[in-house]
Amino acid sequence: MRVRSMTPVFPVAVLALFASLWHLALAQQVPYYMHRCERDDPQVNDCLRFAANKLTHHLRDGGIPEIGIVDVEPVVVDEISIALGSGPDGYRATFKNIEAFGVSNLTFVNVRSDIDSLQFQMTIDIPKIKARAQYKSSGVLLLLQASGAGDYWGEYDGVKSKIYIKASPYQGDDGLTYLTVDQTKMDFSVKDIKMGVENVSNQNAIIHAAMNLFINTNAQELLKEMKPQLRSKLTEHLHDFMQRLFDRIPFEYWLE
Prior knowledge:
The chain has 256 residues and is of the alpha+beta class. The chain has one domain: TULIP domain (Bactericidal permeability-increasing protein, domain 1), CATH 3.15.10. Helix content is 33%, strand content 40%. The protein contains five helices and eight strands. The chain has helices at residues 9-28, 44-60, 205-217, 219-248, 251-254, and strands at residues 75-84, 91-101, 107-114, 119-138, 140-141, 144-145, 148-171, 177-201. The protein is elongated. Residues 1-27 have low confidence and may be disordered.
């Protein structure tokens, strides 16, 4: 009589157990750029703030090659525009290839979380952001024809931002848990602003000086005009960057 071979249940079970232990070992090995918090810790928000600042420090200080993130600056925004006044003589300006430096020098000053629903609210401070861009303008400003093109520069001191993130979990190929960013919101304010234009074509020195005087005198109002587009673009950048982090750093490295 021919005896059928039995399914090797025991070896399969051993392999499954080994795989589970391997995944557990991976989760226990928190890398140097992370600080893991305990979800049941009454001070978990303070712990998450510490962890976020530690991760930011390593991202700022040369990046983290292990997760494929090396250069975090400059933050680049492709284009924004403003409009002051209406009619054919209304002032219009477009800013392209905006590069912002100093964003990574941020500090998390407050974190609020709902771990069960994976919702996080954060407040960050940035001492100074320097920006540069190419700009092109048309129309009338201060009763003067202000059409031209050139270089824009800006210095933004005392930047504060509030950020909201909602995420959901998924299991990676390595058996660990990762997060998908479902929703991102952000807003910001700036305490002091200095900005101006230079290397302007089709303008004499008097118009150039008048433009820079107007820009600096009305810097907060100009930022207010830029803000809706700028906030939308920065929210997209934030969403994409957080997704890059969450795709590369298991949730088990953040919380246990």
